[in-house]
Amino acid sequence: MAAVPSSRTADWWRDAAIYQVYPRSFADGDGDGTGDLAGVRTRLPYLAELGVDAVWFTPWYLSPLVDGGYDVADYRTIDPAFGTLEEAEKLISEAADLGIRVIIDIVPNHVSDQHAWFQAALAAGPGSPERELFHFRPGRGEHGELPPNDWPSQFAGTTWTRVPDGEWYLHLFTPEQPDLNWAHPAVRREHEDVLRFWFERGVAGVRIDSAALPAKHPQLPDFVEGVDPHPYIDQDELHDIYRSWRALADEYGGVFVGEVWLPDAERFARYLRPDELHTAFNFNFLACPWDAGRLRRTIDDTLAEHAPVGAPATWVLCNHDVTRTVTRYGRADTAFDFATKAFGTPTDPALGTRRARAAALLTLALPGSVYLYQGEELGLPEAEIPLTRIQDPMHFRSGGIDPGRDGCRVPLPWTADAPAYGFGPAGEPWLPQPDDWARYAVDRQSARPDSMLSLYRTALRLRRSVAGFGDGPMSWLPAADGVLAFTRPHGLICVVNLADRPAELPAHGQLLLSSGPLDADGRLPSDTAVWLRA
Ligand code: NOJ
């Protein structure tokens, strides 16, 4: 089936379908067991056929890969494990030829401890201008043996590490990811240069990692939960930074998507004012259990918080940090648990798959843009990684309580009967693939009209070719308990049945697509969704 070309308008981002590539696990071109840009380039036709408008690459820069590339040693160099800058440029232009835009990932909060700035800061010693680019402080206690403050890490454990000369440095994530000092003008200048560097190479957008974290309270005070304003989340100075980034992006027609996890809707929306970020991830939807009432409230709240600033919502069901959708939706408690990912909780893959199919139609019918994480279109479940093969620092820093995020980062299966399911020409993949993954392989799913891949291909094609999807209004229709039904422009209707009994469908609707078969009476079974045209 030929893909419908994407629209090429300036505000493409308001309703784009964006595919997230985790380069290490997408496709391995050189056979060393690690995915790379050569692998991505050979698979661009797959992405075009799938029908996505843009691809977001998680970091591909020079990195010791302590945190999967979110520890950047040099923003202007591609990590040799992934390829070269020249290949990245070719990839950007080949993708553009297929109508696919490229979004890169920038990590302003921290760099790798191997970054030249941090190495220089270590060498230069206390009181040096090099140390001012980071947060170096003397310790507390009689001999400076205690950390300078009590901030908890985003990854469990301490946020401070002591260097041999006695000073401590701040890292909200691992010790290999020292936090930059955003009060320093050189830090701002450098990031603006990096943005220009990539916009000049043709990237269409930038995802901003941990976008609410880079600015810190200047005194780095202790934090008393529930009493003090937070000393490092959502500081007001960030808005000034993002305003200047926006002015810069506007010169190139580039767009931003911020990774902003904030419980307060009003504070969240401030990042989306017209002169700041274009979009931000909406994680409340991802974290919402499979429950009609809760989903409806989350959708309403999301649209209500975006409306005053005129920004489109984004919808995300999964990414490289969370348990895969099929596994999550197959559990009795389907809410996402960031702390432990409900490790060991039994899951029913058939139920999870049915719900994930219905959730795909729900998500793709909502107003705004949609993110798909590689393998979501294949219905991959979370993989269990043997303890000896786990790589994610989150696992080690939690003292082994958190299984970490490797289970959603396993190399993709492309060909059922090839070694490593066709992930690469040879070689053992950097994370083991489960023994029963042949059935998820792209070649097998392509041949089956009822596969998850076929559902996504059809849904994305309809989303592009049928008027009414994407940006624009939606209104709820009256529906039975546990059923979500809403209209979009041009008579489009989406109905999702989350109840445990079949639901009647509106009369006279023309069926465009359904996530599973209707019952013998033409009713919509549990955990099934349809698109209709009135
Ligand atoms: C969010 C990223 O998505 C995650 O993978 C990473 O570990 C942290 N930010 C730190 O950069």
Verbal overview:
α12 (349-365) runs parallel beside α15 (452-465). The chain is built from 15 helices and 18 strands. The chain has helices spanning 23-26, 37-42, 44-50, 85-97, 116-124, 185-199, 237-252, 265-270, 283-287, 292-306, 325-329, 349-365, 393-397, 442-446, 452-465; strands at residues 17-21, 54-57, 61-62, 74-78, 101-106, 136-137, 160-162, 168-170, 205-208, 255-258, 279-280, 314-316, 369-373, 475-476, 483-488, 492-497, 510-514, 528-533. The two termini are 26 Å apart. The strands form four sheets. The protein has an eight-stranded parallel β-sheet. A five-stranded antiparallel β-sheet has the order 14-15-16-18-17. The chain has 534 residues and is an alpha/beta fold. 51% of the residues are buried. It binds 1-deoxynojirimycin. The site of 1-deoxynojirimycin has 10 residues, from loops. 1-deoxynojirimycin binds next to loops.
